[in-house]
Write a structure and sequence with these properties.
122 residues, mainly alpha, 57% helix, 0% strand
Length: 122
Amino acid sequence: MGVLKSSDILAEVKDQNSKAAPTTKPPKNSKHPKRQSKDLDERKRHAAIASEAKPSPYETELRHKLRQKVQLSFGLIPEFINDEFNRLAANADMNKREFFYDLLRQAGAEIPPYEQLDGRKL
């Protein structure tokens, strides 16, 4: 009785694998030419539909401007001025930021309406 060695078993498996018919996979770029052009036409059609829904240049430019943010701080100001600012904002039925933008518009700044400045709606 002979002793089985792992090298003998591996050699036998290797021989069996080499005797089996080789399986060849077709190359990835061997698609049928008509099908490839059909897929290309379909992709072009989808791209055309997607490009129709793009936002206007104005919205794109405004969205870009809204993303560039900086911190604006006046430092410590007297309490009565803060109270007066809050009172005026409340009388105008606006929040502080909205009221600040309104004051800038009145001074001649080119700022779009507050509804357009909400980046979530663009």
